[in-house]
């Protein structure tokens, strides 16, 4: 496994669909992450981030209440969380969403449905960049 | 433009920043690419503001390359990075030297790269590397699929109600979004689980809804119908999936052609009409309210449309716009999805909860056995006494809590009626508004399921027979839209459910005539209005004057009454001609506990559900009669009631006693009364019902068993079953 990733960090998975959270959780476990927290929407995610030291956020775009992009913006606005890397999960055919998220400062994105390998590549790319910066 | 102008200085600074970013940029640095894109957009808007359109094409091309990099739509990322670098150089040179048209090495290199990358031509976009589903990823995990099935069902239930809401409020874009979202998610997750057909249906419906969000397709009945069709199809697929998961066979292949055809029809039917009235307020709402995808230009969103140079620099859309427009609609009426709350919940297998409730019931029993134990009572220890009392309190509290785990809001049953009412009223050309009250009222999970059929029947009945057609209502001075209420509330430890309509009410003359015709009532009998109303619950009475598709299923209200009685509930009815009818259901909160009388018959003890017992008496010797052909009778206040002896019904040998030496309990079922002979009444208590197991499931006359205070089994009598046994 890559040295620049701390696999003990807390990873926050945000999705309103529990099955999806489970899929992502399984992949994260497969990659080697040990500590995974779930939240069912943006509000819940912010709540978690208030109390926990989250090292990576994986969020869906399309959620009720607070969408992924709104969550991303709030994370970036808060000086405490502004540097937390965010991986956005979007659906195929939602390219405009991707561009909007990227402009709002997302670290990387992944398009559903993805393989564990692609997901891993994206996460490694994020941390490789952070390590280089 | 003078070189030293502050605008140019600022622009040079921006370009400096951009140059720095571009130099550092790598193909997999999404964040860096985002920053470049943002800077390019800032520059673009600055140029727009200062009316310097000549640079727009260059910025457009650079933006396009930036976007393609992010979207991984480029084969040669090195060239793209080079183009950005050369582009920045060209821009810097222009800003410093105000030279136009540009010249020099950088410009030549830039032009070459633009050509090589084929910018501006909407070439076919290579699919992103991430779009290949992984066949083996999750299907090995049946639990995940099972999760998906149950979660998908929850979401679909939400959709139905939102759709009905949308049909009534076609401009409510928030609701469109809320309907769109589950289809979208369903599609996404189905992709992971390799459920290609579910994915496809999700995709088709999502696509149509996308066009509704974009304002190209209008909300109308056909649209709602076709989305509901999609919901039904998905439901069928989920049911099939569950089956194939349980039996380990391959899922069925569904025919998606009809749905696709209907979607195409709704799409084309509306897409001609929609642009005919553009620039209306509605259109503008669509532009600003949704997120970016709602504001996409018309065109099939299925294809990944590569950004064209003219369209490339899109002004950043502020999210606050979206919020503002959305709240300008009517969010107050939009019901949040069931999963929208932040309260923390755990999903637990229902079998575990059932088990817990069972064990709690036993704990309560054992606990009372301990307290009644002679040896312990003999100790006369005050501390022990107190501790036992404390334990009793805690166990009873625990039992209440464990029961409440199984309690669910009745909304599960109620919300299904929303769709039913919609479909029925359309089918019968009636207009009905359904009001749901007390949806959050909690009731045992098993009751919700059991109540579904009776509710369907009563709602059907109300829409079919109770409510009039709009013309008829208008003629009577009523509002053309009929009103139907579905209410639930708690009252005295029971749950009350009411189904009320403001329709024509019961036609008592017709009911009486029908009852006489059916031989239910002798001709010329003078019945009170209440008694006439009750006739519709009689077996063999069908209210439908002309059998319609809706109600004419050969099932009368007697079946409803039977089900309610089986659930140990009661059904009543009140009606006023011309003003409407109201069905009133009173049901216990749970089927797991009943109030029962413990009675002794010979050496056996039985429990008689209190709800069926009318009175208890000790007959005098002269009130006992034997009549040839009719058996034994007991006179209770001028009425002769047939006597039932339990040991005879259950074939337990000879234990005949004279009724005057025993007790008689008058029990009632469907208007018939019997005098049940028992030797003694031992007490009245709450009884935790335990199933007798599959072997005794079909035993007539017994509803189940329980463990009594002394640890012995007591059998719970089923009055309806006893009546049947007696007649057999």
Helix run count of chain B: 23
Query: How would you name the CATH homologous superfamily of the largest domain in chain B?
Result: Histidine kinase-like ATPase, C-terminal domain
Radius of gyration of chain A: 13 Å
**Largest interface summary:** A-B, 52 and 56 residues
Question: Approximately how much helix is present in the residues of chain A?
Answer: 40-55%
* Strand composition percent of chain B: 15-25%
The name of the CATH superfamily of chain A reads Response regulator
According to DSSP, the number of beta strands of chain A is 5
Would you tell me which CATH topology of the largest domain in chain B applies? Answer: Heat Shock Protein 90
As residue ranges, the low-confidence spans of chain B are 122-139, 270-342, 543-554
**Outline of chain A:** globular
Largest sheet of chain B: 6 strands, mixed
Helical percent range of chain B? 40-55%
- SS element count, helices of chain A: 5
Question: Count the strands of chain B?
Answer: 18
Radius of gyration of chain B: 37 Å
How would you sum up this structure in a few lines?
The complex is a heterodimer of chains A (133) and B (728). Chain A is α/β, with parallel strands linked by helices.
Textual characterization of the structure:
The complex is a heterodimer of chains A (133) and B (728). Chain A has helices spanning 18-31, 42-51, 68-77, 95-103, 116-132; strands spanning 10-14, 35-39, 54-60, 86-91, 108-112. Chain A is of the alpha/beta class and 133 residues long. Chain A has a single domain (10-132), classed as Rossmann fold (3-Layer(aba) Sandwich). The longest helix of chain A has 17 residues, at 116-132. Chain A is globular and about 35 Å long. The model of chain A has no long low-confidence stretch (mean pLDDT 88). The longest helix of chain B has 27 residues, at 142-168. In chain B, strand 12 and strand 13 (639-645) form a beta hairpin. Chain B starts with 5 loop residues before the first helix and ends with a helix. Chain B is an alpha+beta fold and 728 residues long.
């Amino acid at each position: 496994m890559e040295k620049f990733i701390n696999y003990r960090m807390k990873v926050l998975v945000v999705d309103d669909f529990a099955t999806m959270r489970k899929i992502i959780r399984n992949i994260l476990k497969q990659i080697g992450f040990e500590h995974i927290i779930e939240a069912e929407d943006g509000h819940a995610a912010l709540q978690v981030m208030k109390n926990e030291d989250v090292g990576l956020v994986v969020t869906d775009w399309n959620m009720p209440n607070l969408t992924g992009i709104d969550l991303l913006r709030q994370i970036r606005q808060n000086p405490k969380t502004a540097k937390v890397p965010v991986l956005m999960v979007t659906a195929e055919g939602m390219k405009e969403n991707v561009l909007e998220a990227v402009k709002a400062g997302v670290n990387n994105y992944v398009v559903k449905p993805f393989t564990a390998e692609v997901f891993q590549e994206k996460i490694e790319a994020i941390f490789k960049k952070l390590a280089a910066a | 433009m003078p070189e030293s102008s502050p605008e140019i200085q600022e622009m040079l600074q921006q370009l400096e920043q951009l140059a720095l970013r571009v130099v550092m940029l790598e193909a997999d640095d999404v964040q860096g690419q985002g920053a470049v894109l943002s800077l390019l957009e800032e520059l673009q808007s600055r140029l727009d503001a200062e009316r310097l359109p000549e640079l727009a094409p260059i910025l457009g091309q650079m933006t396009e390359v930036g976007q393609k990099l992010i979207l991984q739509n480029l084969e040669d990322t090195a060239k793209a990075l080079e183009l950005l670098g050369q582009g920045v150089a060209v821009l810097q040179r222009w800003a410093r030297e105000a030279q136009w048209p540009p010249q020099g090495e950088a410009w030549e290199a830039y032009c070459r790269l633009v050509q090589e990358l084929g910018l501006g031509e909407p070439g076919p976009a290579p699919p992103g590397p991430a779009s290949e589903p992984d066949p083996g990823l999750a299907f090995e995990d049946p639990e995940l699929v099972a999760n998906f099935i149950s979660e998908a069902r929850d979401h679909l239930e939400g959709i139905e109600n939102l759709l009905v809401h949308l049909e009534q409020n076609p401009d409510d874009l928030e609701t469109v979004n809320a309907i769109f979202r589950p289809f979208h998610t369903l599609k996404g997750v189905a992709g992971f689980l390799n459920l290609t057909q579910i994915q496809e249906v999700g995709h088709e419906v999502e696509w149509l809804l996308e066009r509704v969000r974009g304002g190209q397709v209008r909300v109308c009945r056909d649209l709602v119908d076709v989305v509901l069709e999609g919901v039904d199809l998905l439901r069928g697929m989920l049911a099939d999936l569950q089956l194939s998961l349980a039996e380990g066979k391959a899922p069925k292949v569904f025919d998606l052609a009809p749905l696709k055809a209907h979607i195409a029809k709704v799409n084309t039917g509306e897409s001609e009409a929609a642009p005919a009235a553009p620039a209306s307020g509605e259109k503008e709402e669509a532009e600003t309210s949704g997120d970016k995808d709602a504001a996409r230009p018309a065109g099939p969103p299925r294809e990944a449309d590569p950004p064209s140079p003219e369209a490339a620099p899109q002004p950043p859309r502020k999210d606050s716009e979206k919020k503002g427009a959305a709240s300008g609609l009517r969010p107050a009426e939009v019901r949040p999805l069931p999963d929208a709350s932040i309260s923390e919940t755990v999903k637990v297998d229902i079998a575990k909860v059932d088990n817990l409730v069972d064990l709690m019931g036993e704990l309560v029993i054992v606990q009372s056995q301990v307290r009644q134990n002679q040896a312990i009572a003999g100790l006369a220890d005050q501390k022990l006494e107190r501790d036992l009392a404390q334990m009793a309190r805690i166990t009873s509290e625990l039992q209440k809590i464990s029961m409440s785990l199984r309690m669910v809001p009745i909304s599960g049953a109620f919300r299904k009626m929303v769709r039913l009412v919609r479909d029925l009223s359309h089918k019968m050309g009636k207009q009905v508004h359904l009001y749901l009250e007390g949806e959050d009222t909690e009731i045992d999970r098993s009751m919700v399921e059991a109540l579904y059929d009776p509710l369907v029947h009563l709602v059907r009945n109300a829409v079919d027979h109770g409510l009039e057609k709009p013309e008829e209502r208008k003629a009577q001075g009523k509002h053309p839209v009929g009103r139907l209420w579905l209410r639930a509330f708690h009252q005295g430890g029971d749950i009350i459910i009411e189904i009320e309509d403001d329709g024509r009410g019961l036609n008592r003359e017709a009911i009486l005539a029908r009852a006489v015709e059916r031989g239910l009532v002798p001709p010329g009998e003078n019945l009170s209005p209440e008694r006439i109303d009750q006739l519709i619950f009689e077996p063999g009475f069908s209210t439908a004057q002309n059998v319609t598709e809706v109600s004419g299923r050969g099932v009368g209200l007697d079946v409803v009454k039977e089900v309610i009685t089986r659930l140990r509930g009661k059904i009543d009815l009140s009606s006023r001609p011309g003003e409407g009818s109201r069905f009133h259901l009173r049901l216990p909160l749970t089927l797991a506990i009943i109030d029962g009388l413990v009675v002794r018959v010979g050496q056996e003890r039985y429990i008689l559900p209190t709800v069926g017992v009318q009175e208890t008496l000790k007959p005098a010797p002269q009130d006992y009669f034997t009549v040839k052909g009719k058996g034994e009778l007991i006179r209770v206040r001028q009425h002769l009631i047939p006597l039932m002896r339990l040991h005879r019904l259950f074939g337990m040998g000879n234990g005949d006693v004279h009724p005057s030496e025993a007790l008689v309990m008058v029990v009632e079922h469907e208007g018939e009364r019997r005098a049940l002979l028992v030797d003694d009444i031992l007490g009245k208590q709450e009884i935790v019902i335990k199933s007798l197991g599959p072997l005794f499931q079909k035993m007539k006359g017994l509803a189940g068993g329980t463990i009594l205070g002394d640890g012995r089994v007591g059998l719970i009598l089923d009055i309806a079953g006893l009546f049947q046994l007696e007649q057999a």
